[in-house]
Amino acid sequence: MMHRMTPQKLLTLSLTIVFIVLVIPLYAIKGLNESFDHARATGTVGGIDFKAYYIAADMLRAGKDFYDVEQQAQEVQARGLPLNESYYIYPPLLAILFVPLTALPIQLAAQAWFFLNMALYGACLVIVTRALHLRRHRAILPLLWILAFLFPPALFTLYKGQVNIVVLFLLSLLYYACTLGRAVLAGVTLALASMIKVVPVLLLPYHLWKRQYLLGVTALVTMAIIAIVGWAIVGAGPHETYLSSVLPRLAEPRPNPANQSLGGFFSLLFIANPYSSYVVNSLGLWRLLTGATSAGVLGALAFLLLSRGRAASNTDLEFGLVVASLPLLSNIAWTDMFVLLVFPYAVLCKYALDRQLARGWLLLTAISAALISLPRLQDLISPFLAAQSPLLRNPLVIGLPLYGAVILWLTVATTLWATRQQENRLVPV
């Protein structure tokens, strides 16, 4: 006798079919056909950042200074690729890790890099599902995976060939290793993430405050080893260029509609640029407001973490809040970097599914995701407005994704505060 399929099983099966039939082919087609369409010089951005990593690694193999902008530009032109401002700005580790890919033609290497990152993103979701115990909500998991793969920062960071998925994978593995008590593994992953994109190093003080000293020592030792090995492989010249030229430039204002960090937002307001109707051109005002708001985020973060001490309770919310702070505090955070926010979104999903998140906060979470997922409003309304419409150049309109990131940060922070207050009421005096 055939058993009747329950509505819950039917929903799970339907969502799984949607994921396999619609979502996976979307990524496969993009990876096969568009992972390096930047090379066609048609204004597209497929592989635009991958190009910088690949060329830097190829220059490393040839013994050239892959941080020298002029030499990078020469390499780009020699390959007949479009010349733009996408240059290699990361620590040497990423260029070293990219060297094996230079054995492939750049087009084929771009496809390999796309599908490697696609697999890593799937691995991230598996790790996060396990670490946050989301498997007990099996019926809804396919929907969460569909939403995760349709999250525009995830799709576009893959499309551009960026390294954000690798960083997200390492941060997810870091959290999972912590839940398993694998301090050495956690320290190594934190070191790798920090030596690839620097800003994850902000997680080091958090873990040291949690008295996870083995993790912290492992991270510091691993970073030192990577730096020494990198110096031996790369040589002194590129390191000197990185320290003397690249790092100082990263601290400068970078006005661009895609730069949605706090510093990026204020640069659109207070630095002369061709993208927005800036209020006034004042480097001092940019520094003051960027520094003050960044200090405010760090201060609020410290207050929330210290309010309960080093107890193990709510570590998912704590970690999620620190991760949600990274794009805000990074001076350059393109909208695609918001893929890191998949982790705090997953944490809020856990609390919502466990009925520990009020409907109002769940609504704010959805609004946050919608704002971050929107392309620039300019892309939506530009066909209906004049090219120089004030609305298209308004920094307050351009900053919609940042508002979404701030709403997410406040939602995680409020949830953390509320759960701790509830715990305090349950503890006998």
Features of this protein?
single chain; 429 residues; mainly alpha
Quick recap:
Helices cover 67% and strands 0% of the residues.
Can you offer a commentary on this structure?
The chain is mostly helical and 429 residues long. The protein has a domain at 255-374 and 388-429. Helices cover 67% and strands 0% of the residues. It is built from 20 helices and no strands. Helix 1 (7-34) runs parallel beside helix 6 (141-149). The chain is globular and about 60 Å long.
Number of strands: 0
Q: How would you classify the quaternary structure?
A: single chain
Proportion of helical residues:
55-70%
**Poorly predicted runs of 5 or more residues:** none
Over all CA atoms, what is the radius of gyration?
22 Å
Largest sheet: none
Per DSSP, the total helix count is 20
Order of helices and strands: HHHHHHHHHHHHHHHHHHHH
Gap between N and C termini = 59 Å
Strand content: under 5%
Q: What is the fold's blueprint, element by element?
A:
Blueprint lengths: L6 H28 L13 H14 L7 H10 L13 H7 L7 H26 L9 H9 L2 H8 L4 H16 L3 H15 L5 H7 L3 H22 L1 H15 L11 H9 L12 H24 L8 H15 L12 H12 L5 H15 L3 H5 L13 H4 L1 H27 L3
Helix pairs in contact: 1-5, 1-6, 2-4, 5-8, 8-9, 9-11, 10-11, 13-14, 14-15, 15-16, 15-20, 16-17, 16-20, 17-20
